[in-house]
Write a structure and sequence with these properties.
Blueprint: E1 8-10, E2 15-16, H1 28-31, H2 39-53, H3 64-73, H4 80-92, E3 100-102, H5 104-109, E4 117-120, E5 123-127, E6 134-139, H6 144-148, E7 155-159, E8 162-163, H7 169-176, E9 183-190, E10 193-200, E11 202-205, E12 209-216, E13 219-226, H8 233-246, E14 251-255, H9 264-274, E15 279-284, E16 290-294, E17 305-309, H10 316-326, E18 331-334, E19 342-348, E20 354-363, E21 379-380, H11 385-394, H12 405-427
Parallel strand pairs: 13-14, 14-17, 17-18, 18-21
Antiparallel strand pairs: 1-19, 2-5, 3-20, 4-11, 5-6, 6-7, 7-8, 7-9, 9-10, 12-13, 15-16, 15-20, 19-20
Helix pairs in contact: 2-3, 2-4, 8-9, 9-10
Length: about 425
C-alpha cells in the first residue's frame, strides 16, 4: 500500500496481506469516534466522497445522481450490514477495482505498518480490470509465498477450496490472512496450467535494502536490491549508497525486480538520491491540475546506473524507474513493468469502516501515462517462468551474478558506459 503524507495511495499495491497499524494512516482517532453514523448516513457519506473526489468527473460514464436516488433517497436500511452491501453494489457500478469499501474488520487489517513487519504470506494482489480475476502483483522476497514459488502475474483461482470468481480483493484478503503458523492453500493459474500452493502464514520482518560490492568484468560495481518502498527504505538506501561510495565503486546496479511498490514519498526520496535535477513524477486530478515532485540538487552520486525491472516491478517502482529513465539518469534493463498509474486516497468513515477512492493518475517526467501498459526497458532481456523460478528460488546463489542473464546484461551496459568515459573527457 502506498501512503503519502497526504494519505495518497498508489493503486498497484492495492492490498498487502498483512497486519498494519491504523494509526500510521493518521486516522485512529476518527475510527474510534463516539459518533456512529446511521446506515443511510454511511451510504450517503460514501456517495459524497465519490462525488467530490473521484478522478473521472463522468464517474466512468455512470449517472452518479441516479445512483444516489437508488441507494440513498429511495432506500431504507435497518442495519449496517445492509448498508455495507449497498455500498459495495454502488461502487461496483464505477467498474474500478481500486475504489473499494472496507468494513471495520477489513479496514483494520488493510493498514500500513511502518515498522516493516507483516503478518501473512507476503504477496500483494490486484484485480484485473478486464477479466476481474485476482492477480498476484508480486511476492515479497524471502516471505512464505516467495519461498513457495508464487510468481508475479499468477492468477488466484481458489483460496483453500473457495473459488475466487466474483470475489473482490477485500474478500480475498479476509480468506488469505490469518494467524502466524496457520496454513492457507492457493490454487494458481500460470500460463494455462493449474498449480496448488500450501503456504504457512508467518510474521515477516522486512529490510527493504540489501547491497554489496560486485567484482565484475566492468570493474568494482555497487549492487543494491530494493524490495519495497517502506518508511525506512530511504534511510537504508542512503546508507547503502554512502557506504558503496566510500569503497570507490565505479557504477551501480539498482535491482527493482519483483518490487511491488510502497510509500510514494519513499520513491520520491530515493529518486532524489540519484537525480540532481528534473521532474520525478506528476499527479493529475480530475480538474487536470498537476502537482509535480522534483529533484532538489542533492544526489549522492552521479556514477553510471542501470536499473533492473520486470513484470513484478509496480507502482512506486515504476515512479522511480520512470523518473530515472526519462531524465536519462539510468538505463533500464529487463522486461516490461506491471503498469499501474492510478492514485488512491484512503479515508476513514464514521463507523470505523474505510474507503479507498481513486483520486488521480500519475505521469512520468516525459508525460507518459503508464497505466495498463507499464514501462518498457531500454534493453529487453526476457526470462522464462522456469528461469525466473530457478533464479529466485532454486538457485539463489546465481542471482545478481553473471549467471543471472539480466544482471549480466546490466554489467555489460555499465562496462560500455565506463569504457566510453575517457573518450568523452578527452573531447571536452
Amino acid at each position: 500500500m502506498v501512503i503519502t503524507k497526504n494519505r495518497l495511495v498508489l493503486g498497484a499495491t492495492v492490498v498487502t496481506l498483512s497486519t498494519i497499524a491504523v494509526t500510521s494512516l493518521g486516522i485512529h482517532s476518527r475510527g474510534q469516534a463516539l459518533f456512529k453514523a446511521s446506515p443511510k448516513e454511511l451510504v450517503d457519506e460514501v456517495w459524497q466522497n465519490i462525488y467530490r473526489n473521484y478522478v473521472d468527473g463522468t464517474f466512468n460514464q455512470v449517472d452518479w445522481q441516479a445512483v444516489r436516488n437508488e441507494y440513498v433517497k429511495n432506500k431504507s436500511y435497518s442495519n449496517q450490514q445492509e448498508a455495507y452491501k449497498s455500498i459495495r453494489e454502488m461502487l461496483k457500478k464505477l467498474d474500478d477495482p481500486y475504489t473499494r469499501f472496507m468494513d471495520p474488520e477489513e479496514f483494520k487489517n488493510m493498514q500500513v505498518d511502518t515498522s516493516g513487519e507483516l503478518t501473512g504470506i507476503g504477496i500483494t494482489i490486484s484485480q484485473d480490470e478486464k477479466t476481474k480475476q485476482l492477480v498476484v502483483i508480486a511476492p515479497i522476497e524471502d516471505t512464505p509465498a516467495f519461498k513457495a514459488g508464487v510468481l508475479a502475474k499468477d492468477v488466484i483461482l481458489k483460496i483453500d477450496d473457495k473459488s475466487t470468481k466474483g470475489m473482490d480483493t477485500n474478500q480475498a484478503v479476509s480468506l488469505i490472512r490469518g494467524e502466524a503458523g496457520t496454513q492457507v492453500s492457493l490454487t494458481i493459474q500460470r500460463n494455462g496450467q493449474t498449480k496448488q500452493f500450501n503456504i504457512k502464514r508467518a510474521r515477516i520482518e522486512i529490510h527493504p535494502v540489501k547491497y554489496s560490492q560486485k567484482q565484475t568484468p566492468a570493474g568494482n560495481l555497487g549492487y543494491i536490491r530494493l524490495n519495497q518502498f517502506s518508511a525506512n527504505a530511504g534511510k537504508e538506501m542512503q546508507a547503502a549508497i554512502r557506504d558503496l561510495e566510500s569503497k570507490k565503486v565505479s557504477g551501480y546496479i539498482l535491482d527493482l525486480r519483483g518490487n511491488p511498490g510502497g510509500l510514494l514519498f519513499s520513491s520520491i526520496e530515493i529518486a532524489r538520491m540519484w537525480l540532481n535535477k528534473g521532474t520525478i513524477v506528476s499527479t493529475i486530478d480530475r480538474q487536470g491540475e498537476r502537482e509535480r515532485e522534483v529533484a532538489n540538487g542533492r544526489a549522492l552520486t552521479n556514477k553510471p546506473l542501470v536499473v533492473l525491472v520486470d513484470k513484478g516491478s509496480a507502482s512506486a517502482s515504476e515512479i522511480l524507474s520512470g523518473a530515472l529513465q526519462d531524465n536519462k539518469r539510468a538505463v533500464l534493463v529487463g522486461t516490461q513493468t506491471f503498469g499501474k498509474g492510478l492514485v488512491q486516497s484512503v479515508r476513514p468513515l464514521e463507523d470505523g469502516s474505510g474507503l479507498a477512492v481513486t483520486i488521480a493518475k500519475y505521469h512520468t517526467p516525459s508525460d507518459r501515462d503508464i497505466n495498463k501498459h507499464g514501462i518498457d526497458p531500454d534493453v529487453k532481456v526476457d526470462l522464462t517462468d522456469a528461469q525466473r523460478q530457478d533464479l529466485w528460488l532454486n538457485e539463489r546463489d546465481k542471482l545478481a551474478t553473471l549467471k543471472d542473464p539480466q544482471f549480466a546484461k546490466a554489467v555489460e551496459v555499465i562496462g560500455k558506459q565506463l569504457a566510453a568515459k575517457p573518450t568523452a573527457t578527452a573531447e571536452k
